[in-house]
Amino acid sequence: MSSTRTVAIIVAAGQGLRSGSALPKQFAALAGKPMLAHSHAALAAHPDIDSVLVVIGAGQETMLAEALGDVPFVIGGATRRESVLSGLEALAADAPDRVLIHDAARPFLSATVIDRLIAALDAELGAFPALPVADTLVRDDGTPVPRDGLHRVQTPQAFRFAEVLAAHRTWPEDAEATDDAQMVARSGHTVSIVQGDPMLEKITHPADFSAAEARHAATLRVRTASGYDVHRLVEGEELWLGGLLIPHDKGLSGHSDADVALHAITDALLGTIADGDIGMHFPPSDPQWRGANSAQFLQHAASLIAAQGGIIDFIDLTIICEAPKIGPHRAGMRARIAELLRLEPGQISVKATTTERLGFTGRGEGIAAQAIATIRIGTQ
Ligand SMILES: Nc1ccn([C@@H]2O[C@H](COP(=O)(O)OP(=O)(O)OP(=O)(O)O)[C@@H](O)[C@H]2O)c(=O)n1
Ligand SMILES: C[C@](O)(CO)[C@H](O)COP(=O)(O)O
């Protein structure tokens, strides 16, 4: 194990005014979680990064806690440069060897880019990712600007800690600097370029959100999983099925409301992320789930998928019973399940079959349900 200590700073103290977002953009939802949570997870999970410090604006503490829970943070300043300096100064008392400085506004950070930066730091004082300019460049009056050797600069930017701190501390107040690499370079140090990543595009304007969602969706892979459940039909119980209370002479019995259809879908969703089954998340032995509305089980499974950046594409549910007739309730079930999963009814299929009076369903002793869930999710 290396004795070199590397810390990451994420600057997230901006207001995101150009983004048109109701929340400061770094806390706005993107691909199922707050934008900041994406790069924080990537940095925190990297084996060469020892810790992550977030720099937020004054008054953004609650939004940070909602986005990431209890994580180390400091308060930044009125400009990006001031926010970076706040982060560096907070680390200075117990200075790491190396620091990566990253914009929260660049959410999709891969381990590969971090690897490239860390490798470059073995030989250089600093390194940053960049992409060559591919478009023709012109000035306002249409005069072409030669694009040879021009790059679009991204973050994280990686430095030996002492050098970047000194560059920030000595930077003239009135001098302009749009990133940290140019500050270190102007102190006379070599800062090298590593290959950037189109996924690291900065989110600045309103249209950047949908473009980022589309870039993220293109990286996802399809997964399917099935769920199956059975509950006993008894007299004296309400019948909850597919999220609806259905008039019937019997109801399903179980520890919760026994909505066998929602249970099958919940298990199918959990299956797509290989996260056990409904009994593991909501043990029948736990009294808090006695009589519980199964909608919360379904929504919990959906939230686990969203937390991994997954997208639910389709649910196919089959209810197996002799009675009640499902046809009259099909549209209501599709609408309710769609509402609970924040999908469109067109993404929910509800089918029903009898077993020709055979077996426990045929004798009306119970209802069975099976579901297949299809989602898209990242592979990392
Ligand atoms: N005072 C500031 C300003 C910006 N940033 C951070 O620097 C990154 C890049 O800045 P930018 O995209 O310009 O974000 P905002 O300043 O929030 O955007 P706007 O200028 O539209 O308000 C963002 O992660 C942002 O949160 C910061 O930490 N402190
Ligand atoms: C640091 C940066 O992301 C590198 O491209 C960029 O300079 C930030 O600029 P902003 O004007 O603070 O958004």
TrEMBL record:
It catalyses: 2-C-methyl-D-erythritol 4-phosphate + CTP + H(+) = 4-CDP-2-C-methyl-D-erythritol + diphosphate; 4-CDP-2-C-methyl-D-erythritol 2-phosphate = 2-C-methyl-D-erythritol 2,4-cyclic diphosphate + CMP. One of its GO terms (molecular function) is 2-C-methyl-D-erythritol 4-phosphate cytidylyltransferase activity. InterPro entries: IspD, IspD/F, IspD/TarI, ISPD_synthase_CS, MECDP_synthase, MECDP_synthase_CS, MECDP_synthase_sf, Nucleotide-diphossugar_trans. 4-CDP-2-C-methyl-D-erythritol 2-phosphate binds at residues 229-231, 255-256, 277-279, 353-356, 360, 363. SUPFAM superfamilies: IpsF-like, Nucleotide-diphospho-sugar transferases. One of its GO terms (biological process) is isopentenyl diphosphate biosynthetic process, methylerythritol 4-phosphate pathway. Residues 1-222 are annotated as: 2-C-methyl-D-erythritol 4-phosphate cytidylyltransferase. The record marks 147, 202 as: Positions MEP for the nucleophilic attack. CDD domains: CDP-ME_synthetase, MECDP_synthase. It holds the Pfam family IspD. Keywords: Isoprene biosynthesis, Lyase, Metal-binding, Multifunctional enzyme, Nucleotidyltransferase, Transferase. It comes from the Bacteria. In the N-terminal section; belongs to the IspD/TarI cytidylyltransferase family. IspD subfamily. Belongs to the IspD/TarI cytidylyltransferase family. IspD subfamily. HAMAP family: IspD (MF_00108), IspDF (MF_01520), IspF (MF_00107). Bifunctional enzyme that catalyzes the formation of 4-diphosphocytidyl-2-C-methyl-D-erythritol from CTP and 2-C-methyl-D-erythritol 4-phosphate (MEP) (IspD), and catalyzes the conversion of 4-diphosphocytidyl-2-C-methyl-D-erythritol 2-phosphate (CDP-ME2P) to 2-C-methyl-D-erythritol 2,4-cyclodiphosphate (ME-CPP) with a corresponding release of cytidine 5-monophosphate (CMP) (IspF). This is Bifunctional enzyme IspD/IspF. The lineage of its organism: Bacteria, Pseudomonadati, Pseudomonadota, Alphaproteobacteria, Sphingomonadales.
